[in-house]
Amino acid sequence: MSHPDSQWSASRPNRTPCRHTPASSCPAAPFLVPRAPGTLQDGSPMALSRILECMPHMAGLYERSGELKVLRGAMDATLGGHGEAVMIEGAPGIGKTSLLAEAKRLAVSAGFQVASARGSELESDFPFGVVRQLFEPLLARMEAEDRQRILSGTAGQAAIVLRRVVPERSLGGDFSILHGLYWLTADICERQPLAITVDDLHWSDIDSLKFLSYLMPRLEDIPACVVGTLRQFEVFARSNALDQIVTAPPSVLVFPSKLSAEASTALIVGEFVKSGAPEPEDEDFLSACWSATGGNPLLLKELTEALTTEHVEPTAAHIPQVYALGPRAVARRVAMWMRCLPQGCAPLARAIAVLGDGAELSHAAELAGLDRDDAMQAAKSLEHARILYTLPSDEMKPRMGFVHPLVRAAVYEEITPADCHRAHRTAASLLRDSQAEIERVALHLLRTLPSGDAETVTMLWSAARSALARGSPETAAKYLRRALAEPPTTADRLDLLFELGNAMRRVDSAAAVQYLTEAHEMARPSRQRVEIALALGDALLALRHSEEALAVWQQALAITAPEDTELLYQLNACILSIPLYEPGRPDLRQDILSRVPELRSPKPSESMGGRYLDCVIAGHDAVIGDPRAVVRAQRALHEDAPARPSDGQRSLSFGWLALISADRKEVLASLDAAVELAHRQGSVNDLTGALTYRAMAWLYRGNLDEAAADASAAVHAVETSSLGLRRLVLGPVQAEVQIEQGALSRAQATLEWTGVPDPAPLTGLMYYVLYSRSHLLRIQGRTTEAFNAALAAGQSFSAAGGDNPAIVPWRSEAALCLHLLGRDEEARALAEAELKLARYWSAPRALGRALRIAGTLSEGGADVSLLREAVTRLQGSPARLEYAKALADYGAALRRHGVRNQARTSLSNALDIAEARSAVPLVQQIQDELHAAGIRPRRHAVTGLQSLTPSEQRVYDLAVAGRTNREIAQQLFVTAKTVEAHLSNVYRKVGVTSRRQLGGLAEQADAAEEPE
User: Fold this and answer.
1) Beta carbons of 473 and 507 less than 8 angstroms apart
2) What Gene Ontology cellular component terms go with this record (predicted)?
3) Cβ–Cβ < 8 Å for 18, 33
4) What does pLDDT average to over the chain?
5) Cis bond leading into 250, ω under 30°?
6) Which residues pair with 227 in a beta bridge?
7) How far apart are the C-alpha atoms of 766 and 525, rounded to whole Å?
8) Is the predicted pLDDT of residue 158 greater than 50, yes or no?
9) Are 601 and 634 spatial neighbours (Cβ–Cβ below 8 Å)?
10) Distance between CA 301 and CA 594 in Å, rounded?
């Protein structure tokens, strides 16, 4: 995807020479352009107070040496190739913006590019508003060739965010856009480090916060430094994306403190002297100024200006005036200037307060009822009074902003509610007529009162569709809710409710149910009613209201035309999924499953609905341990099948589960395709589901590093979204990986992260959590608790009809607990029962585990034969870690029976596999066994192509094919630093030092495989 060059170059003529600061930056921007002290860009005199604002390195940063040290350290680290982030948190006026301006000065002097943005209350509902402030100026300044190069790669996925007008039906999903924005950032800073500065993060739009949250853990791999400011102790209606940005590594959080009495005195004296007023000498007066403002730098400056303007003598006699002015210094100064300034100033200031920072002066003039000349004069007066400032912009279209959010608030709060409503409605009309983005028009419509205006509904609806196309369902939902309140005509209400309900399904299932229920009740029997029912049932199931979902779907099934096979497939897939997600009552389960035989079809599932149905039936077969599940899942997930993200992935996951449980290698190809599709077109929900099941597949194969990477990425996605249901599968998968790696405390934290209480309910997908909880408790030595958890997992799994030990091996886990409790006879009975079920399912991993545990618990010589069979069954399977465990237990049994040489071979081979997979507890177990046998472990040195992990193998293949590190990273959806790490491992393992040698190695390998 790429942009026409004209889209970016339209605003380039007459741009300010301020190289790195976008049109929406703060008033500290001018210091980026060298000029004579005390002058503006045009050479005119500049107020000393403005100089202090614009050049904070010269003055204004009282007692901020610690914060400046942190900023310099972050810049230095970024120059070294490892990006960092600094978040500056504090009260309004404490000096956050001055520190941010200093960060920009430091960055420019160090050779950084600078991308700046500022959040605002008005634009907090503008999708990707802060992102656009950051990147649009950077792209506009690029040469066309460079811009085309960047946007033709993976970064092009984010281009839709930056377009003025977007197609209503976009292939992009919210995750693919975040991923594209990351690569846009990486590509921009490839040749020159980048400083990203965002003032007032707390007012940033949710989509930009999600991007920054996505960027944070990847900063270490690119030369980009993020510096942001946010207010302290304020509650903002945001997701936890903001918390992730502020608290997660590599963020460093700093809290500028109030000024000391000494610094306060220095500031006050300096301000009085600059104004030409007598220098304050009365200590009580100076102390009162400090006390009245709480040492807040902004309030101190505003207080001293108010005092000097009103010619208040700095003596003890006037201390009451100090306390009267102190906390209201900003509002008092603004009100005072508004009374003194020429007549047109107040209307213009109010107009810009309504339009927001960055408002075009022409629009503000029209809203204020002023002609151009009067508006220009009023703007100059307001700028002289330090209420407004001129933003860097096209000289033909000057833009204005307030010098501080508190100043805007002081002006805006003086507008009456009725006038405010009228002003925002007029602003919306002005922007619509000037062909502004429809979302920018919608920002003002959100702040108007409902009046039954059809055009308002149309514009909000259009803005919602644009926001959805940009991957912003939260913002789209806000626009649609406001459109509902207008209200729309009866004819439009149904469609609007349906669209709103679908948007809310990606944000808030409970709210989605509300809107979809109303739409469902309004709709007459029709195909649309069935489509609404599909969405409503899905939202109900996400809330675990399974019986209500079933009722909705069954009603829809009754009115679906027999020839509409696609909808029939989808409805049946949904209905059959209920017992898997929410087992509920046995009679309900039996009623649903009684329909499975009639839905089995010998024909391949060519449509998406058919694939969904096949996957759900395969899921049921897999859960009960019926081997027919494998063939059905294979046909549903074959490589040539069409792919579509989002709505059907919940059904497809049952097909993945069936193939993972059967140790089928083709499942990884299907999961890889799903992950790739999510990166390129999909949502966070799509990606999380695909990563969760791919992590499970890697875990069962014993590839712990790959499983950990996928699980970690999925966890981060869940934490910045509302995908709570994913935790019930994802959490146990990650915990099992951590247990195998020996990270027991992390596994404990992960299981707590799932949110499942103890004791846990036995319905739904709780059996995954309960099984992992039992496994962890047993290793921690809490055997009785572990046994009870294993039994609970069995009860929960059985409620879903589960009997397949390849999915939940609760019997063998309970058997191990019973053995530790000295109840061996009961333990052997459970182990034998699991072995019988595993033989029927016949997948190597589950059967090998069942044989291994039955062998360790058996008496006499049966242990060796069972363990030998476990080794044989697992030897050629992909379940390499389970194979290592079988080898280890078999070697231990051989040692106990005195067969020392075979024990050495078995244990040594197990050690090689365990060490290669970083399975720390298993490595320790094997080393202890070797030590007990008096066998010295051979030195572990796994080399050659056969020693490469799956991730290393993929990097190797692409490197041999001539791909650069960046191209490999984009294709594999990892960072360039990750590719470098994998290549280093490849070089070490195969004994080369360059890519050229890799190519020669590949040729030798190909030649060795050719028949003679």
Assistant:
1) yes
2) cytoplasm
3) yes
4) 85
5) yes
6) 86, 197
7) 37
8) yes
9) no
10) 77
Query: Measuring CA to CA, how many Å separate 745 from each of 520, 698, 728, 788?
Result: 47, 22, 19, 21
Give the tokens for residue 472.
């912003």
**H helical segments located in 316-400:** 319-325, 329-340, 345-355, 361-368, 372-384
- How far apart CA 929 and CA 908 sit, in angstroms, is 10
Cβ burial, residue 43 (10 Å; 0-12/13-18/19+):
exposed
Per DSSP, the residues of 41-95 read TTS-B--HHHHHHH-TTTTT-TT-HHHHHHHHHHHHHHHTT---EEEEEE-TTSS
Which tokens belong to 510? 């409970």
Phi-psi region of 388 (alpha: psi -120 to 50; beta: other; left: phi over 0): beta
Q: What is the pLDDT of residues 267-311, one digit of tens each?
A: 999 889 888 888 898 999 999 999 988 888 988 988 888 888 888
Give the whole-angstrom CA distance, residue 704 versus residue 716. 18
Q: What is the C-alpha to C-alpha distance for residues 593 and 612, in angstroms, rounded to an integer?
A: 16
Token look-up 């509409």 returns: 564
567: amino acid identity, one letter: L
In single-letter form, the type of residue at position 773 comes to: R
The one-letter amino acid at 561 = A
Give the span between the Cα atoms of 46 and 60, in whole angstroms: 16
Q: How far is Cα of residue 446 from the mean position of the Cα atoms in its chain?
A: 26
pLDDT of 251 > 80? The answer is: yes
| Residues 116/25, Cβ–Cβ less than 8 Å | yes
Helices and strands (DSSP H and E) totals, the chain: 51, 8
β-pair type (194-199, 251-254): unpaired
pLDDT digits (tens, 9 = 90+) for 517-529: 999 999 999 999 9
Q: Omega of the bond prior to 759 within 30 degrees of 0, cis? A: yes
pLDDT at 960: 83
Contact 754, 787 (CB under 8 A): no
DSSP track, 410-477: HHHTTS-HHHHHHHHHHHHHHHHHTT--HHHHHHHHTTS-----HHHHHHHHHHHHHHHHTT-HHHHH
Residues 6+ apart with CB under 8 A from 594: none
Only one residue has tokens 């694939």, namely 611
